[in-house]
Amino acid sequence: MRKKGKLFLDDFSAINSLDDYFNDHQLLRSTRVVRDIAASNKTTAVAVMNQPFSSVIDKASDVDWVKLNLSAGHIYQIDLRGLDTGHGTLSDPFIKGIYGSNGKSLGAIYSDDDSGEGRNAHLTFAPTTSGIYYVAAAAYGKLTGSYSLLVSEDLTAPTLTSIQPIQDGAVAVNTNITIQFSEVVEAAGGSIHIIGDDGHQINILALDINQVQIVGQQVTINPSINLHPGITYTVSLDANAFKDSSGNAHIGLARGVYEFTTEVNSDLSSSLSDWTIMVYMAADNDLESYALSDMNELEQIANLSGLSITALLDRSTSYDSTNGNWSDTRVGAVQADSSSSVISFTSENSWGELDTGNSQTLTDFILWSVENRPAENYALVIWNHGGGIDGIAWDDSSNGYLTMNEISRSLNTAISSRTDDNLDKFGLIAMDACLMGMIEVAYPLTGMAEYVVLSEELVPGTGFAYDDWLSVFSSSDVTPLQLGDAALNSYANEYAWDSDITLSNLDMSQMGVLVDSLNQFTQLAINANSRDLKAISKAVAGARDYPSDQSYDFADLGHAMDLISTGRSVTNMALKNAASAVSDAVDLLVHAEVGTVSQASGVSIYLPYGNELISSTYNSSSYTFLQAVPLWDDFLRVI
Length: 639
Description:
By secondary structure, the protein is an alpha+beta fold. Helix content is about 20%, strand content about 25%. Strands 22-21-20-23-26-27-28-31 form an eight-stranded mixed β-sheet, sandwiched between helices. Helix 5 links the parallel strand 26 and strand 27. The chain is elongated and about 100 Å long.
């Protein structure tokens, strides 16, 4: 190969040695030279990890394939360097591509011109399978010259360099926690644990973007709920909570190493003892007599310190003739009395005949309650028949009911319409109704409530035992978490001997974690092979149905994912791991669950399978959950 006026790699008769040639062209002496490199998987050129490999682009359009032996799950940095950094004479190195062991390209995404220092080329590559790969080294345009190829793997894990707030002095109960690392980090699969010496514990998944913000080397943890005043907290990190861009996980932070104490007299501590509970009683239907009974229960405990109760009660003309047999809609503050049969609402409380299935009625009731019984904390109970994703608050006189879109719109209107009160979010939203413990029901309440109490199963006609549940205010301060857990404890005691009983307290700060895990699962599932899809369909067929008579296509989400992740028929390990991650996220979302259903994880989902038809109304327009997890209905179609 000879051309007048040009020197090529196989023409060394004009120089005394290879060393002389590469010294003349400023190539490092520590590099290794391979001649006549093939542009195919027949190449004999091999790059050793973390050691530079050097050669020459000796003619226009020359391409050198260099062999690599890489491991799945590792992250590699590939740098093709030349003149700009003194690693050769090639002025514009170009990574033409990465190829598999069969010689086929992995795609244009794995080519690069100038992402490195100067005009050097740089790529990050994370192989999904272990084995042989090839990097194609070339030059941009028709340039020639020597180059150095370095394939490196970062094996150094990030370290924690500082954490705030400092351990000296007391901090506010709504303080953020800031962690500084030695290098840029990203969230991994582990959690952050904030544990108080009073037993209060907040667990936050590092992937929860609502509570964890990462900017470069700094991580800011902003818990969605306040800490308790006058309590010493310790912060710990799981060993796999954070990692660097090469996949090296931070070692973690043990419990007790870092501590801080909250202020005793925090401005926010007073919010723990001042509540208004709003009860929206849509009883213009066959539940009328139960509504009157529950009103009497509310009156039994309406005089407890730190508690105000407001109620909207819409009655029917058909089912109960007691208490004056009125049939309009009445609104007022619940007054304490000693009668267990007569309620105190009079005609002075009347708003006329209203449709409780109209979202404006709900909005007006909330705003009236805030104006007439202002408090630091608010809770809302929606009382009626429930149909899961079909809705709640049926009104026989108008044939109306509330969808979840209407409820979320009503709540958002009430929260955003007033700026002079404390209603920026409900401490608790509960639904005293059947089958409402669904992800499609809970998701629209994200950002509007700290905790949500719902039942996956049917609820007995007598519903919540309000006099027992709200007796929690007989003690001192009550937090949203304690109020939700008190509802569960009361319910479990009330129906301890009944079958098919469930009630859950959902920590809404964890909703983002569940949504993220469902997105990862559905992405893998819709691309699974037919054998795995058939196995998934068979697995979810065994998931607990709600109600137990299978009259609806609702199934326990956690149980379904457990069956997928543990079933032997599903062979795709990534898919099984993703299902397991969904189950773990359900456990984070469901702070507590009680009842008599052993398979209950605390939240259900619409889950038809096999030959069952998918409702034509199950779409993102009707359910905001499908806007957050857009592939869930596609997943239903493939199983």
